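Limitations
The structure tokens in this dataset are predictions for the assembled complex, not deposited experimental models. Users should treat interface geometry with appropriate caution, especially where small molecules or nucleic acid strands are included. An illustrative entry is reproduced here so readers can see what is and is not provided.
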Amino acid sequence: MSVTAAIGFSAAGVAAGIKPDALDVAVIVADAPSPTAGVFTLNQAAAAPVVLDRESLGRSALKRGIVINSGCANAATGDQGIANGVAMAGTLADQIGCERGDVLVSSTGTIGPQLPMDLVLPGIRSAASRRSPTEESATLAARAILTTDSVVKQSVVRSNGWVVGGMSKGSGMVRPNMATMLAFLTTDALVEPTVLNDILRAAVEVSFNSLNIDGCESTNDSVIAMASGASHIVPDHDEFAAAMEEVCRDLALQMAADAEGTSRVVTINLTGGADDADSRALGRTVADSALVRSSFYGGDVNWGRILGALGTSAIDIDPGRITVEYEGVVVFERGMGAGFDEAALLETIETGDFSITIDMGSGDGRARVVTTDLTPEYVAFNGERS
Amino acid sequence: MSVTAAIGFSAAGVAAGIKPDALDVAVIVADAPSPTAGVFTLNQAAAAPVVLDRESLGRSALKRGIVINSGCANAATGDQGIANGVAMAGTLADQIGCERGDVLVSSTGTIGPQLPMDLVLPGIRSAASRRSPTEESATLAARAILTTDSVVKQSVVRSNGWVVGGMSKGSGMVRPNMATMLAFLTTDALVEPTVLNDILRAAVEVSFNSLNIDGCESTNDSVIAMASGASHIVPDHDEFAAAMEEVCRDLALQMAADAEGTSRVVTINLTGGADDADSRALGRTVADSALVRSSFYGGDVNWGRILGALGTSAIDIDPGRITVEYEGVVVFERGMGAGFDEAALLETIETGDFSITIDMGSGDGRARVVTTDLTPEYVAFNGERS
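Predicted assembly:
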């Protein structure tokens, strides 16, 4: 039930007509102004809704709602795009009785075209009037934010008297101009805006930001969390952080598993970096490599490419101290290939998901990065004209 | 005739048996100690020959010869790999009557295995004894350095009394563990080692370093130039630099055209960057993007992905000042998609090579980056087990 699992929220998803035959407008509404935090793309060509939400959260961290559309990214749309984003927020605000500045906006879909506002605004009014705290409404909202995703992505973690729920969309940039990952979390725990913000940032770092499907941060990527406080319970800090992290990780794994045109999810455990940040950066360098990911597709044990990828990092490495394991089998150590039963290992990783552990031998840092293989189908998808 | 076009050089290519049925050992020998310069991979997991050549050139810039093998990269081979590289240089030195330190070494092929020295050393002796200044010998050498290349790559530029010639190998990292690009240039112009070094570095920057096939610098990449001075002519500095650049560019284009599993070469002209270095970095960011290169494969006009890629750069950009043209047709300007005859443009770029111009609107910098499309065939190649 995702975003309505926590008390104090209602949601809806409707078909406004932006997309031919699918739900395309969603709203999430809090009963009262609620602490809200957002983490947004670092892409310098950020879409209009990202620009607007950053400004809005800079003014105030208390929000009433979020309005989301799929089918059009409202990116690279100039001043008209900004005006359209403002009108979306204003329309939901009018319906729920708050200021325009109390509503955030998210969009996902094709980059370039302007939003068909004659369809979008009536859609928002319809969604606002249909919103409810039911599981059905939350699922319709989760469906309305999808683009090329094949399944709805929702997750809930319940604790002592409070709940964290969330929904997301994204499955790799599998169609031209369909770039974005969006995630929305709600909780009824009673938390300060700054605490919510810090915990969300940390959770995003180890989940969505550790998920690599196409090595690219899109124009629209956004993760937004709202805390209604309706449980009246102040959660234990670490317990709350763990719950937020679990929901984010779960949603990220659902996205990896749904990456169209990929055949497996590969988890890269990077240990022994100077610190966690270095470990994460090194893990991403491996996860970003088209050559490494092609070898995952073929089920090849190709530690040479892993080493080659690590060697391109800006972080100092010492190949002589690196150990590489596939599914627990050491394949490279002390600067050279290790002796191992190649036939047995190839059989182990022939199909399905697997994991690699890379130990840098330099410190106590560690990170886990999830990626997918790069397949001919992926490229064929991405080569199709929009 | 490439490396023997200049006076004062001999060459040979032989089949030593490292590869099943192909030439795999080449030598280039100067009649006398000659100013020599090298540009090597920045990959931190550099192969043994790269480590050895860097040290050797650090001691002295005067060299007598280069010994090259294909079929084995001598990379990730530890101390044994270093010893093998030293033995290769020593064997050629013995044959041509010089010190081991007067000979450079290059290898290309599979990462990991040790060189079969019982085959390599007799091969080097055979190559040394067969070397000659003929066109045939140069072409055999050019053939002996190939791995997955489908054609020999050679280039010659003649000027007033002096010549620059070169050969190269590399066609994208199209087979597992077959990573490297190698290029060897010779000239009979009379130039100082420091001048040769500066001019080689500049030429590599605008040619091989602007060529993007897999966005990855391998463990073995090397470009080496030798100047015999046998023409006794001190060339005009700019004229010599232009000739070196032309040979490097020509070899780089031959490599791009030979990239297996790709269907077209796309030239990205990046203008209006703050300076040339920024322009080159921005052009490479676009050329590195798997999503942009997938759209090239499909013949799609996908300026959204180009903008998204530029947005991920560490260099500040202003989307509102960027203009993007495909084959001279403006498709994006002033922050928005431009009106253009899409059907006509799609027909223009349906097949074959094309060019894109991206103007950043920020300065006078400019750069040209050559890349290829990313195809399902490329991924299928790279997914094959080694």
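Some entries come with short summary sentences. For this one: The longest strand of chain B covers residues 25-40.
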